[in-house]
């Protein structure tokens, strides 16, 4: 494969299980691999410097890990999860992972739109460095029990849809002394009805 993956080029390729983006590929376009429901692994070469939003792997329910070549100047992988090179933004979580819980590494400040959409674990832990949570990051959560947030100032958060679709109500754990802050901050107060300090 040379150059770039065009918009929707592998959309609904239902038998695709593994993707290797060689060093000659520089870009992955919008929805390039969406609805590849048997896709399990992705290897990103050193040449890929532009991946257009998390939607390029929407509905890849079997995706277990994303690996990135060490020489890639734009992206990195940690434990099979995709980040920008500086590890300040978590770009894609493989929703086919068997993890029951996931801890976002310290230093990450941003969760772009939809990065945990379809997350099947029960516990998500966000670091004190977190400052922005994009649209529908918490979408389609079926099993979520607890969300832990280390930030004393509630991160800016866009609209979420998990509670509308599945009517689940995870418990939110926040730093000691900041329960009232979260209870009085929209939309945290809308999405999490039970807030506890930890």
Find the count of extended strands (DSSP E, 2+ residues).
17
User: In total, how many domains does the architecture comprise?
Assistant: 2
CATH architecture of the largest domain: Alpha-Beta Horseshoe
CATH superfamily of the largest domain: Ribonuclease Inhibitor
CATH topology of the largest domain: Leucine-rich repeat, LRR (right-handed beta-alpha superhelix)
The 3D shape can be described as globular
Q: How does the helix and strand content classify structurally?
A: mainly beta
Q: Any low-confidence stretches, pLDDT <50, length ≥5?
A: 1-8
User: Taking strands numbered 1, 2, ... along the chain, how are they ordered across the largest sheet?
Assistant: 10-12-14-16-17
What does this structure look like?
The chain has 2 domains: 1-86; 99-198, Ribonuclease Inhibitor (Leucine-rich repeat, LRR (right-handed beta-alpha superhelix), Alpha-Beta Horseshoe), CATH 3.80.10. A 5-stranded parallel β-sheet has the order 10-12-14-16-17. Helix content is 7%, strand content 29%. The protein is built from 3 helices and 17 strands. It has helices at 162-166, 179-183, 188-191, and strands at residues 3-5, 18-21, 25-28, 41-44, 50-51, 65-68, 75-78, 81-84, 90-92, 101-103, 110-111, 123-126, 132-133, 146-149, 156-157, 171-174, 194-197. It is mainly beta and 198 residues long.
